[in-house]
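[recover] target loaded
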Protein backbone atom coordinates (compact mmCIF):
# COMPACT_ATOMS: atom_id res chain seq x y z
CA UNK A 1 0.00 0.00 0.00
CA UNK A 2 2.81 2.40 0.88
CA UNK A 3 4.48 1.68 -2.48
CA UNK A 4 1.18 2.13 -4.30
CA UNK A 5 0.58 5.45 -2.49
CA UNK A 6 4.09 6.66 -3.31
CA UNK A 7 3.69 5.81 -7.00
CA UNK A 8 0.29 7.50 -7.07
CA UNK A 9 1.62 10.71 -5.48
CA UNK A 10 4.63 10.65 -7.84
CA UNK A 11 2.39 10.26 -10.89
CA UNK A 12 0.23 13.17 -9.71
CA UNK A 13 3.30 15.38 -9.21
CA UNK A 14 4.58 14.46 -12.69
CA UNK A 15 1.17 15.19 -14.18
CA UNK A 16 0.99 18.58 -12.43
CA UNK A 17 4.51 19.44 -13.63
CA UNK A 18 3.49 18.58 -17.19
CA UNK A 19 0.35 20.69 -16.93
CA UNK A 20 2.41 23.58 -15.54
CA UNK A 21 4.90 23.27 -18.40
CA UNK A 22 2.13 23.16 -21.00
CA UNK A 23 0.46 26.19 -19.40
CA UNK A 24 3.75 28.10 -19.50
CA UNK A 25 4.22 27.25 -23.16
CA UNK A 26 0.65 28.29 -23.96
CA UNK A 27 1.01 31.59 -22.10
CA UNK A 28 4.31 32.22 -23.84
CA UNK A 29 2.71 31.67 -27.22
CA UNK A 30 -0.25 33.82 -26.24
CA UNK A 31 2.05 36.62 -25.11
CA UNK A 32 4.08 36.37 -28.30
CA UNK A 33 0.92 36.53 -30.39
CA UNK A 34 -0.34 39.53 -28.42
CA UNK A 35 3.02 41.22 -28.76
CA UNK A 36 2.97 40.60 -32.50
CA UNK A 37 -0.51 42.07 -32.75
CA UNK A 38 0.74 45.20 -31.00
CA UNK A 39 3.73 45.61 -33.27
CA UNK A 40 3.54 49.14 -34.66
CA UNK A 41 4.56 48.12 -38.18
CA UNK A 42 3.18 44.60 -38.72
CA UNK A 43 3.72 42.42 -41.74
CA UNK A 44 0.53 40.90 -43.09
CA UNK A 45 1.10 37.31 -44.19
CA UNK A 46 -1.26 35.79 -46.75
CA UNK A 47 -0.73 32.04 -46.83
CA UNK A 48 -0.40 31.07 -50.48
CA UNK A 49 1.56 27.96 -49.53
CA UNK A 50 5.26 27.39 -50.23
CA UNK A 51 7.06 28.35 -53.42
CA UNK A 52 6.19 25.83 -56.13
CA UNK A 53 8.96 23.36 -56.86
CA UNK A 54 9.66 24.90 -60.26
CA UNK A 55 10.08 28.37 -58.70
CA UNK A 56 12.47 27.61 -55.84
CA UNK A 57 15.68 27.70 -57.88
CA UNK A 58 14.84 30.91 -59.74
CA UNK A 59 16.54 34.26 -59.17
CA UNK A 60 15.22 37.15 -57.09
CA UNK A 61 14.27 40.72 -57.97
CA UNK A 62 14.03 43.68 -55.60
CA UNK A 63 12.24 46.60 -57.27
CA UNK A 64 12.89 49.84 -55.38
CA UNK A 65 11.13 53.14 -55.97
CA UNK A 66 12.52 56.47 -54.82
CA UNK A 67 9.40 58.52 -55.48
CA UNK A 68 10.19 61.77 -57.32
CA UNK A 69 13.86 60.92 -57.92
CA UNK A 70 14.67 62.83 -61.09
CA UNK A 71 16.87 61.09 -63.65
CA UNK A 72 19.86 63.40 -63.08
CA UNK A 73 19.85 63.57 -59.27
CA UNK A 74 22.36 60.74 -58.76
CA UNK A 75 25.04 62.30 -60.93
CA UNK A 76 24.23 65.90 -60.06
CA UNK A 77 24.20 65.34 -56.31
CA UNK A 78 26.86 62.59 -56.13
CA UNK A 79 24.74 59.74 -54.83
CA UNK A 80 27.68 57.35 -54.63
CA UNK A 81 25.80 54.09 -54.10
CA UNK A 82 23.49 54.68 -57.04
CA UNK A 83 26.45 55.72 -59.19
CA UNK A 84 28.29 52.56 -58.13
CA UNK A 85 25.24 50.50 -59.06
CA UNK A 86 25.19 52.18 -62.47
CA UNK A 87 28.79 51.13 -63.07
CA UNK A 88 28.02 47.55 -62.03
CA UNK A 89 24.90 47.32 -64.15
CA UNK A 90 22.65 49.15 -66.61
CA UNK A 91 21.22 52.66 -66.38
CA UNK A 92 19.48 55.35 -68.40
CA UNK A 93 21.65 58.52 -68.34
CA UNK A 94 18.86 60.57 -69.93
CA UNK A 95 16.19 59.01 -67.80
CA UNK A 96 13.22 56.69 -67.96
CA UNK A 97 10.07 58.23 -69.47
CA UNK A 98 7.00 58.20 -67.22
CA UNK A 99 3.48 58.00 -68.57
CA UNK A 100 1.34 61.12 -68.66
CA UNK A 101 0.20 62.35 -66.23
CA UNK A 102 3.54 61.95 -64.47
CA UNK A 103 2.16 61.35 -60.97
CA UNK A 104 2.64 58.69 -58.33
CA UNK A 105 -0.11 56.06 -58.42
CA UNK A 106 -0.58 55.87 -62.20
CA UNK A 107 3.15 55.41 -62.83
CA UNK A 108 3.85 53.00 -60.00
CA UNK A 109 1.03 50.85 -61.30
CA UNK A 110 2.34 51.18 -64.86
CA UNK A 111 5.77 49.94 -63.73
CA UNK A 112 4.32 46.70 -62.36
CA UNK A 113 1.67 46.04 -65.05
CA UNK A 114 3.34 47.14 -68.28
CA UNK A 115 0.23 49.16 -69.15
CA UNK A 116 -0.30 52.87 -69.74
CA UNK A 117 -2.60 54.57 -67.19
CA UNK A 118 -5.38 54.87 -69.78
CA UNK A 119 -5.27 51.07 -70.16
CA UNK A 120 -4.93 49.96 -66.52
CA UNK A 121 -7.42 52.57 -65.29
CA UNK A 122 -5.50 54.45 -62.58
CA UNK A 123 -5.34 57.68 -64.58
CA UNK A 124 -4.53 60.01 -61.67
CA UNK A 125 -3.98 59.87 -57.92
CA UNK A 126 -7.61 60.99 -57.54
CA UNK A 127 -10.29 60.78 -60.20
CA UNK A 128 -13.97 60.20 -60.87
CA UNK A 129 -15.41 57.28 -62.80
CA UNK A 130 -18.59 58.41 -64.61
CA UNK A 131 -19.57 54.82 -65.38
CA UNK A 132 -19.31 53.67 -61.75
CA UNK A 133 -20.59 56.98 -60.40
CA UNK A 134 -17.81 56.77 -57.80
CA UNK A 135 -14.55 58.52 -57.02
CA UNK A 136 -11.13 56.97 -56.48
CA UNK A 137 -8.81 58.63 -53.98
CA UNK A 138 -5.38 57.17 -53.36
CA UNK A 139 -5.36 58.17 -49.68
CA UNK A 140 -8.76 56.56 -49.00
CA UNK A 141 -8.33 52.86 -48.10
CA UNK A 142 -11.88 52.13 -49.25
CA UNK A 143 -11.03 52.89 -52.88
CA UNK A 144 -7.25 52.34 -52.85
CA UNK A 145 -7.66 48.79 -51.48
CA UNK A 146 -10.60 47.89 -53.73
CA UNK A 147 -9.16 45.64 -56.42
CA UNK A 148 -12.04 46.31 -58.82
CA UNK A 149 -10.54 49.73 -59.64
CA UNK A 150 -7.37 48.18 -61.07
CA UNK A 151 -6.95 46.72 -64.53
CA UNK A 152 -4.02 44.62 -65.67
CA UNK A 153 -2.05 42.04 -63.71
CA UNK A 154 0.62 43.44 -61.39
CA UNK A 155 3.80 41.44 -61.05
CA UNK A 156 3.07 40.23 -57.52
CA UNK A 157 -0.29 38.83 -58.70
CA UNK A 158 1.37 37.18 -61.70
CA UNK A 159 4.01 35.66 -59.42
CA UNK A 160 1.54 34.35 -56.84
CA UNK A 161 -0.69 32.89 -59.55
CA UNK A 162 2.30 30.91 -60.82
CA UNK A 163 3.36 29.61 -57.42
CA UNK A 164 6.09 32.17 -56.71
CA UNK A 165 5.96 34.05 -53.41
CA UNK A 166 6.13 37.86 -53.40
CA UNK A 167 6.42 40.67 -50.84
CA UNK A 168 5.87 44.41 -50.72
CA UNK A 169 6.65 47.34 -48.48
CA UNK A 170 4.33 50.23 -49.35
CA UNK A 171 4.31 49.90 -53.14
CA UNK A 172 1.17 51.70 -54.41
CA UNK A 173 -1.71 49.26 -55.01
CA UNK A 174 0.05 46.37 -53.21
CA UNK A 175 -2.61 46.39 -50.47
CA UNK A 176 -5.45 46.06 -53.00
CA UNK A 177 -7.06 42.69 -53.50
CA UNK A 178 -6.50 42.56 -57.27
CA UNK A 179 -7.98 39.50 -58.99
CA UNK A 180 -8.45 38.10 -55.49
CA UNK A 181 -4.68 38.03 -54.89
CA UNK A 182 -2.41 39.89 -52.46
CA UNK A 183 1.34 39.49 -51.96
CA UNK A 184 2.33 36.73 -49.56
CA UNK A 185 3.92 39.38 -47.31
CA UNK A 186 2.93 43.03 -47.32
CA UNK A 187 2.56 46.09 -45.10
CA UNK A 188 -0.04 48.82 -44.94
CA UNK A 189 1.46 52.20 -45.71
CA UNK A 190 2.92 54.05 -42.74
CA UNK A 191 5.53 56.70 -43.48
CA UNK A 192 6.68 56.54 -39.85
CA UNK A 193 8.21 53.11 -40.47
CA UNK A 194 11.96 53.89 -40.36
CA UNK A 195 13.83 53.47 -43.61
CA UNK A 196 16.56 51.35 -42.06
CA UNK A 197 13.88 48.96 -40.75
CA UNK A 198 12.52 48.60 -44.27
CA UNK A 199 15.91 47.42 -45.41
CA UNK A 200 16.19 45.02 -42.46
CA UNK A 201 12.76 43.59 -43.22
CA UNK A 202 13.68 42.84 -46.80
CA UNK A 203 16.90 41.14 -45.71
CA UNK A 204 14.92 39.13 -43.16
CA UNK A 205 12.53 37.96 -45.88
CA UNK A 206 15.49 36.80 -47.95
CA UNK A 207 16.79 34.82 -44.97
CA UNK A 208 13.60 32.75 -44.82
CA UNK A 209 13.78 29.08 -45.85
CA UNK A 210 13.80 28.65 -49.63
CA UNK A 211 10.21 27.41 -49.78
CA UNK A 212 8.92 30.54 -47.95
CA UNK A 213 11.29 33.16 -49.36
CA UNK A 214 9.75 35.80 -51.68
CA UNK A 215 11.37 35.99 -55.11
CA UNK A 216 9.80 39.31 -56.10
CA UNK A 217 9.98 42.18 -53.59
CA UNK A 218 8.85 45.79 -54.02
CA UNK A 219 10.04 48.62 -51.78
CA UNK A 220 8.87 52.24 -51.73
CA UNK A 221 10.38 55.44 -50.31
CA UNK A 222 8.54 58.77 -50.41
CA UNK A 223 11.00 61.31 -48.97
CA UNK A 224 12.63 62.55 -52.19
CA UNK A 225 9.21 63.40 -53.59
CA UNK A 226 8.05 65.09 -50.38
CA UNK A 227 11.10 67.30 -50.07
CA UNK A 228 11.23 67.98 -53.79
CA UNK A 229 7.73 69.42 -53.49
CA UNK A 230 8.39 71.26 -50.27
CA UNK A 231 11.78 72.81 -51.08
CA UNK A 232 12.29 72.41 -54.82
CA UNK A 233 14.51 70.08 -56.87
CA UNK A 234 17.70 72.07 -56.28
CA UNK A 235 17.35 72.84 -52.57
CA UNK A 236 19.90 71.72 -49.92
CA UNK A 237 17.13 69.84 -48.10
CA UNK A 238 16.38 67.83 -51.22
CA UNK A 239 20.05 67.05 -51.78
CA UNK A 240 20.39 65.82 -48.19
CA UNK A 241 17.39 63.52 -48.71
CA UNK A 242 18.96 62.09 -51.87
CA UNK A 243 22.07 61.23 -49.83
CA UNK A 244 20.02 59.69 -47.02
CA UNK A 245 18.18 57.30 -49.32
CA UNK A 246 21.35 56.57 -51.25
CA UNK A 247 22.85 55.42 -47.94
CA UNK A 248 19.91 53.06 -47.41
CA UNK A 249 20.57 51.56 -50.83
CA UNK A 250 24.19 51.06 -49.77
CA UNK A 251 23.03 49.23 -46.62
CA UNK A 252 20.86 46.95 -48.72
CA UNK A 253 23.69 46.12 -51.09
CA UNK A 254 26.01 45.32 -48.18
CA UNK A 255 23.35 43.10 -46.63
CA UNK A 256 22.84 41.22 -49.88
CA UNK A 257 26.55 40.34 -49.90
CA UNK A 258 26.11 38.43 -46.63
CA UNK A 259 22.99 36.61 -47.82
CA UNK A 260 24.66 35.39 -51.01
CA UNK A 261 21.57 34.85 -53.13
CA UNK A 262 21.22 35.64 -56.86
CA UNK A 263 19.38 38.96 -56.47
CA UNK A 264 18.82 41.57 -59.18
CA UNK A 265 18.23 45.07 -57.79
CA UNK A 266 16.27 47.51 -59.95
CA UNK A 267 15.98 51.11 -58.71
CA UNK A 268 13.42 53.37 -60.35
CA UNK A 269 11.33 56.46 -59.82
CA UNK A 270 7.80 57.22 -60.92
CA UNK A 271 8.60 60.72 -62.19
CA UNK A 272 10.96 63.64 -61.77
CA UNK A 273 10.46 67.14 -60.38
CA UNK A 274 10.67 70.73 -61.67
CA UNK A 275 10.63 74.14 -60.02
CA UNK A 276 7.49 76.16 -60.77
CA UNK A 277 6.44 79.82 -60.25
CA UNK A 278 4.85 80.63 -56.86
CA UNK A 279 1.38 81.35 -58.24
CA UNK A 280 -1.66 79.45 -59.38
CA UNK A 281 -3.52 79.50 -62.68
CA UNK A 282 -7.22 79.42 -61.80
CA UNK A 283 -9.41 78.11 -64.62
CA UNK A 284 -12.48 80.01 -63.42
CA UNK A 285 -10.47 83.19 -63.97
CA UNK A 286 -9.74 82.03 -67.53
CA UNK A 287 -13.37 81.73 -68.59
CA UNK A 288 -14.49 78.42 -67.06
CA UNK A 289 -18.13 78.37 -65.93
CA UNK A 290 -17.81 76.03 -62.94
CA UNK A 291 -21.58 75.48 -62.98
CA UNK A 292 -21.09 73.36 -66.09
CA UNK A 293 -18.78 70.98 -64.21
CA UNK A 294 -20.39 68.00 -62.48
CA UNK A 295 -17.23 67.09 -60.58
CA UNK A 296 -13.57 67.94 -60.68
CA UNK A 297 -10.43 66.41 -59.20
CA UNK A 298 -7.37 68.63 -59.49
CA UNK A 299 -7.48 69.67 -63.14
CA UNK A 300 -9.69 66.75 -64.21
CA UNK A 301 -13.06 68.13 -65.36
CA UNK A 302 -16.22 66.04 -65.57
CA UNK A 303 -18.96 67.86 -67.43
CA UNK A 304 -22.61 67.11 -66.79
CA UNK A 305 -23.34 66.53 -70.48
CA UNK A 306 -21.46 66.33 -73.75
CA UNK A 307 -22.91 69.71 -74.68
CA UNK A 308 -21.49 71.17 -71.45
CA UNK A 309 -18.12 69.60 -72.22
CA UNK A 310 -18.17 71.35 -75.58
CA UNK A 311 -19.00 74.69 -73.92
CA UNK A 312 -16.15 74.26 -71.38
CA UNK A 313 -13.75 73.46 -74.19
CA UNK A 314 -14.74 76.60 -76.07
CA UNK A 315 -14.59 78.76 -72.92
CA UNK A 316 -11.04 77.74 -72.06
CA UNK A 317 -9.56 78.36 -75.50
CA UNK A 318 -7.06 79.83 -76.14
CA UNK A 319 -4.32 79.78 -73.47
CA UNK A 320 -0.55 80.22 -73.44
CA UNK A 321 0.22 78.00 -70.43
CA UNK A 322 -1.90 75.01 -71.43
CA UNK A 323 -3.90 73.40 -74.19
CA UNK A 324 -7.44 72.14 -73.87
CA UNK A 325 -8.45 68.95 -75.66
CA UNK A 326 -11.68 67.10 -76.02
CA UNK A 327 -10.64 63.74 -74.63
CA UNK A 328 -11.22 61.96 -77.95
CA UNK A 329 -8.77 64.36 -79.59
CA UNK A 330 -5.88 63.84 -77.16
CA UNK A 331 -2.57 62.94 -78.87
CA UNK A 332 -2.44 59.21 -79.49
CA UNK A 333 0.94 58.91 -77.75
CA UNK A 334 -0.75 59.72 -74.40
CA UNK A 335 -2.98 56.60 -74.60
CA UNK A 336 -5.79 58.31 -72.67
CA UNK A 337 -8.44 59.20 -75.23
CA UNK A 338 -10.63 56.14 -74.60
CA UNK A 339 -10.80 56.31 -70.81
CA UNK A 340 -13.68 58.38 -69.38
CA UNK A 341 -11.94 58.51 -66.00
CA UNK A 342 -9.69 61.20 -67.50
CA UNK A 343 -12.62 63.60 -67.78
CA UNK A 344 -13.64 65.75 -70.75
CA UNK A 345 -12.32 68.20 -71.75
CA UNK A 346 -8.70 67.61 -70.65
CA UNK A 347 -6.23 70.29 -69.50
CA UNK A 348 -2.75 69.67 -70.96
CA UNK A 349 -0.02 71.94 -69.49
CA UNK A 350 2.50 73.42 -71.94
CA UNK A 351 4.78 74.88 -69.27
CA UNK A 352 5.34 73.89 -65.63
CA UNK A 353 2.66 75.86 -63.80
CA UNK A 354 0.34 74.96 -60.94
CA UNK A 355 -3.25 74.87 -62.22
CA UNK A 356 -6.49 74.53 -60.29
CA UNK A 357 -10.15 74.98 -61.08
CA UNK A 358 -11.40 77.66 -58.69
CA UNK A 359 -9.69 80.78 -57.48
CA UNK A 360 -9.59 81.36 -53.73
CA UNK A 361 -7.92 84.43 -52.24
CA UNK A 362 -7.01 82.41 -49.14
CA UNK A 363 -5.23 79.69 -51.11
CA UNK A 364 -1.57 79.37 -50.17
CA UNK A 365 0.98 79.54 -53.00
CA UNK A 366 1.86 76.22 -54.61
CA UNK A 367 4.90 74.26 -53.48
CA UNK A 368 8.09 75.22 -55.33
CA UNK A 369 8.46 71.72 -56.78
CA UNK A 370 5.89 69.97 -58.97
CA UNK A 371 5.34 67.15 -61.44
CA UNK A 372 2.50 65.74 -63.52
CA UNK A 373 3.62 67.27 -66.82
CA UNK A 374 4.26 65.53 -70.13
CA UNK A 375 7.97 64.52 -70.19
CA UNK A 376 8.11 65.31 -73.91
CA UNK A 377 7.35 68.95 -72.99
CA UNK A 378 8.99 69.12 -69.55
CA UNK A 379 12.04 66.79 -69.62
CA UNK A 380 12.58 67.23 -65.86
CA UNK A 381 9.75 64.71 -65.49
CA UNK A 382 12.05 61.87 -66.55
CA UNK A 383 12.88 59.39 -63.82
CA UNK A 384 15.73 57.30 -62.43
CA UNK A 385 16.42 53.82 -63.80
CA UNK A 386 19.33 51.62 -62.78
CA UNK A 387 19.58 47.81 -62.57
CA UNK A 388 22.34 45.47 -61.44
CA UNK A 389 22.71 41.83 -60.50
CA UNK A 390 23.48 38.38 -61.85
CA UNK A 391 21.16 38.79 -64.85
CA UNK A 392 22.26 42.32 -65.81
CA UNK A 393 25.29 43.25 -67.90
CA UNK A 394 27.85 45.65 -66.43
CA UNK A 395 28.31 49.30 -67.37
CA UNK A 396 25.53 49.38 -69.97
CA UNK A 397 23.91 52.68 -70.91
CA UNK A 398 20.43 52.59 -72.40
CA UNK A 399 18.58 55.32 -74.24
CA UNK A 400 15.51 56.88 -72.66
CA UNK A 401 12.63 54.40 -72.72
CA UNK A 402 9.03 54.31 -71.55
CA UNK A 403 8.43 52.80 -68.14
CA UNK A 404 5.91 50.26 -69.48
CA UNK A 405 8.96 48.22 -70.46
CA UNK A 406 10.07 47.50 -66.88
CA UNK A 407 7.32 44.89 -66.42
CA UNK A 408 8.48 42.49 -69.17
CA UNK A 409 12.11 42.87 -68.04
CA UNK A 410 11.28 41.75 -64.49
CA UNK A 411 8.89 39.02 -65.60
CA UNK A 412 11.62 37.62 -67.86
CA UNK A 413 14.23 37.62 -65.07
CA UNK A 414 11.81 35.81 -62.75
CA UNK A 415 10.86 33.33 -65.46
CA UNK A 416 7.16 34.24 -65.25
CA UNK A 417 4.81 33.63 -68.15
CA UNK A 418 3.13 36.94 -68.99
CA UNK A 419 1.70 35.98 -72.37
CA UNK A 420 -2.08 36.23 -72.79
CA UNK A 421 -4.12 35.10 -70.99
CA UNK A 422 -1.65 34.94 -68.07
CA UNK A 423 -1.32 38.74 -67.96
CA UNK A 424 -3.29 39.82 -70.99
CA UNK A 425 -1.88 42.11 -73.70
CA UNK A 426 0.59 44.66 -72.31
CA UNK A 427 2.02 47.88 -73.73
CA UNK A 428 5.63 47.09 -72.84
CA UNK A 429 8.01 44.95 -74.88
CA UNK A 430 11.04 42.99 -73.71
CA UNK A 431 12.94 43.96 -76.86
CA UNK A 432 13.33 47.53 -75.54
CA UNK A 433 15.57 46.43 -72.63
CA UNK A 434 16.79 43.05 -73.82
CA UNK A 435 20.28 44.50 -74.39
CA UNK A 436 20.75 44.95 -70.62
CA UNK A 437 20.30 41.22 -70.01
CA UNK A 438 23.15 38.74 -69.97
CA UNK A 439 22.92 35.94 -72.48
CA UNK A 440 22.30 32.49 -70.98
CA UNK A 441 25.96 31.57 -71.38
CA UNK A 442 27.08 34.68 -69.50
CA UNK A 443 25.18 33.81 -66.36
CA UNK A 444 24.50 30.30 -65.12
CA UNK A 445 21.38 30.31 -62.99
CA UNK A 446 22.23 28.91 -59.57
CA UNK A 447 20.09 26.93 -57.18
CA UNK A 448 19.11 28.31 -53.80
Amino acid sequence: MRLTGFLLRNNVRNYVRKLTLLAAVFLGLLFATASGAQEPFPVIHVDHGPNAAQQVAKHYVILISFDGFRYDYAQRYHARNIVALEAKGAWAPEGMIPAFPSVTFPNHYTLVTGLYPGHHGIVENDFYDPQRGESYKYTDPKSANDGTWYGGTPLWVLAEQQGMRSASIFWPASTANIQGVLPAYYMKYDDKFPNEKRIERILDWLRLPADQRPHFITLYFSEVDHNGHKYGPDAPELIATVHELDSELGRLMQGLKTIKLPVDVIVVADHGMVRIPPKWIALDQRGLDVALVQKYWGTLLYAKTDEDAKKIYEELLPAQEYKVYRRADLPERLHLSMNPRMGDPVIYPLVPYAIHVKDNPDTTPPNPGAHGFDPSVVPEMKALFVAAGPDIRSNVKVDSFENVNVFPLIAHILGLDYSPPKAGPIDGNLSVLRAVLKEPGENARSSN
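[recover] notes: The chain has two domains: 44-275+377-442, 280-365.
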